[in-house]
Amino acid sequence: MIQQQQVDAVLILSMQRFEKKNALNLQMYRELSAALQSAAANPAIKVVLLQGNEHCFSSGNDLKDFLSAGELNRQHPVVEFLYTVAAFPKPLVAAVAGLAIGIGTTVLLHCDLVYAAPDCRFQLPFTQLGLCPEAASSLLLPQIAGYQRAAQYLLLGEAFSSEQAAAFGLVNEIVPAAQLLAHAASKAQALAALPAQAVLVSKALLKANDKQTEHAIATELAEFQQLLQSDSCQQRLQAFFSRK
Question: What's the distance, Cα to Cα, between the start and end of the chain in Å?
């Protein structure tokens, strides 16, 4: 469900579970983590491009599959992915169209360049499910968007548009949907054409506070695990599943 294609020095990772709006299941998390870990160690790969298709990026976690895996320890596929993407040392580019819900938005906080189609719907509905932020979004979103805007999206769980995401800095550029994937690929190729060591060092300098990010991931996960077991969360999850 994660298609891999290497074009020159760019590895393209395409989420392909379109019948479920690219809801990420445990197998997809495993495949993404393995691909990123392999790319990090492979000198022939200089840049990774993460995409869905021109209609959908990701509708977030496949919640039933996610809940089947038990405790959120370091071996949990979602947890492994969060730490892997946060620590990925090479440039990570994202092409986003359509839905970007939950992890579909928070993963973008770990990308270096984000290109979006005009029709995107970003949303972080954690509190609406009785849960809290994940993927260090409680740290990274305020850094990008400012506290009040981050609170609007993380506390109220309000959806926001491509224009809004570009205005506060989550998205680098809005690109027509038909040109999105090609445009993001061209930017990835432009990065790959630069001196590799200079790019790696520059990203490392930009990410100098990664220990803070790792700490935020761990803190959020501990709270997330507690909230998952609460009556409020269980009731909201049951209501969510009954609507599916």
Answer: 22
**Domain CATH code at residue 140:** 3.90.226.10
pLDDT value at position 244?
61
* Calpha distance 67→236 (Å, rounded): 14
Neighbours of 206 (CB within 10 A): 10
Q: Model confidence over 175-189: pLDDT tens digits? A: 999 999 999 999 999
Between 172 and 63, the more confident residue is 172
Q: Is residue 212 part of a domain?
A: no
85-122 burial, b for 16+ CB within 10 Å, e for fewer? Answer: bbebebbbbbbbbbbbbbbbbbbbbbbbbbbbbeebbb
Strand partners, 61: 24
Give the chain's domain count. 1
Give the global pTM. Answer: 0.96
Domain range spanning residue 92?
A: 2-177
In a domain, residue 215? The reply is no
Kind and range of the H or E run holding 49? strand 47-51
